[in-house]
Amino acid sequence: MKEYKEDFPIFTKSPCVYLDSAATAQRPAAVIEAEKRFYETMNANPLRGLYKLSIAATDAYEESRKCVKDFINAADEREIIFTRNASESLNLVAYSFGLSFIHEGDEIVTTVMEHHSDMLPWQMVAERTGAKLIYLEPEADGTFTEAELSKITDRCRLIAIAQVSNVLGCVNPVKELADRVHKNGGVIVVDGAQSVPHMKVDVRELGVDFLAFSGHKLMAPFGIGVLYGKRELLEKMPPFLTGGEMIEYVRLDGATWAELPHKFEAGTVNPAGAYGLKAAIEYLQSVGFDRIREIEDRLTALVFDEFQKLPYIKIYGSPDPAKHTGIIAFTIDGVHPHDIASILDADRVDIRAGHHCAQPLMDYLKVGNTARASLYLYNDEEDIRRFLESIRKVRGIMGYGA
Amino acid sequence: MGLESVYGDILNEHNLRPSHRGNIADATIRLEGKNPTCGDDIYLELKVGEGGIVEDGAFNGSGCAISQASVDIMLDLIIGESKERALELCGKFMGMIHGKATEDDLDELDEAAVLKDISHMPARVKCAVLGWHTMEEMLKNRAGGQPGAIEGHAEGRHDYCTTE
């Protein structure tokens, strides 16, 4: 079986056991080269120049849009809006769709496991419109009981939910929720930041109205993200940001807006980032989601096997390693997660520790902080061996007997 | 360099078996120090007597070993000292954390010198200084308050927020 580590220059130039891919992925040479190639051979401001270089930049940008459209099986390229990241995509939906089409008395349903990026925009919409914000509370394994789901009433106009939790790693029932909210004529907004890099996401098969994700978690450059929106919804939504490139005609007393998708892409865009995103998607597809899943599940199971032998470790989420999407949040009795991370750092093992931008979930789980190891396609058994070796030292270093 | 010298017997002793965890009944100043980015919390109480002497002190709170041990070590150092001397030690501690401490400073800082190599762990600076910043704020700006009357929070100046 091919190992992928060699495709990532960072592992030779700055060797480490990288277990923080849920925060940001590492980039393969193909992506770094693509961004460089853009700047070396196509760099001009796209969408406005009348010369060859600008046309090349425009073509690169629009080819990338087509690539994203095919990747998530959208019906139309005009449904793909380039943003900076998933947070901006979610804010676009909240400010443009939420403030225009959610009204007093409506209900917005989200969950306590959301990343702050998919919680704060809905708090804002509820506050400004007078809509009621309702939180679904998960079981310990991340699933929702029918009693929780019954909080979705016929007044629900919008459901906002992460497809995969960035702490529990569980996969949420997006398709079922989409069906439920559509019966009321509402919409579903899906935070795909942790799902799109790890599993096939087909927006039409799932029936989602909006899907937000970041490029950097799927090996693309920083600063490029995506919002997918159904065309009929995007068409009726007002612009989020106004300015250059998003207009049709501007007069001193007003303006008309450009066609989709440009209506939502004010100002100079990030064509090099988009071009890098295309390279990342192509790289990801060359590996394939089946292979990614196999690697993540196999390595997660290795970690679970060892953790279950260590009585002082608690794992959050499902006891089944195949239900974690490569995300393992855990605590060690008597040791603060920041101390765990520092001890592992000394062994060049990189994990995350903190609240993972999900403070309400931490409160709900009654844990202030957790450590989190998160995997991706470049991780291997040697990474896991070194991670576990370092983990086994932690309690001793912190002054606890073995 | 760094980790081995920080995480050792002295830090562990103060973290696992702190001398000053708890409350003092006759505190003259109380203040909460917080690092919102990591959730560390210190509730510090000091009793400053007539002559400006820090006669007693105690802390409560939760956080990593570095934040908790650092405040316990600090209280060992400043109890019995004048306000001015406590602030002077605070200045030396901050200097050390930023990689600027003489051998004499390290001697004066005694056990707190185990945190010297935090200067090579930028993500943990805020943990080490939390208790010290809280004490500095109390003695500089809050010392004239009524007993137990002052609550608030002083945030570490070296917030280090990671987001995703």
Describe this structure as you would to a colleague.
Chain A contains 14 helices and 15 strands. Chain A is an alpha/beta fold and about 400 residues long. Chain A has two domains: about 120 residues, Aspartate Aminotransferase, domain 1, CATH 3.90.1150; about 260 residues, 3-Layer(aba) Sandwich (Aspartate Aminotransferase, domain 2). The longest helix of chain A has 20 residues. Chain A is globular, with a radius of gyration of 22 Å. The model of chain A has no long low-confidence stretch (mean pLDDT about 95). Chain B is α+β, with helices and mostly antiparallel strands. Chain B has one domain: Sufe protein. Chain: A, CATH 3.90.1010.10. In chain B, α2 packs across α3, α3 runs parallel beside α6 and α4 packs antiparallel against α6. Chains A and B meet through α12 of A and α2 of B.
Fold blueprint:
The complex is a heterodimer of chains A (402) and B (164).
Chain A: H1 10-13, E1 17-18, H2 29-41, H3 52-71, E2 80-83, H4 86-101, E3 107-111, H5 120-129, E4 132-136, H6 146-149, E5 156-162, H7 174-183, E6 187-191, H8 203-206, E7 210-214, E8 225-229, H9 231-236, E9 247-251, E10 254-257, H10 271-287, H11 289-307, E11 313-315, E12 327-332, H12 337-346, E13 349-350, E14 352-354, H13 359-364, E15 370-374, H14 381-397
Parallel strand pairs in A: 1-13, 3-4, 3-5, 5-6, 6-7
Antiparallel strand pairs in A: 2-8, 7-8, 9-10, 11-12, 12-15, 14-15
Chain B: H1 3-6, H2 9-16, E1 29-35, E2 40-48, E3 54-62, H3 65-78, H4 83-97, H5 103-109, H6 125-141, E4 153-155
Parallel strand pairs in B: 1-4
Antiparallel strand pairs in B: 1-2, 2-3
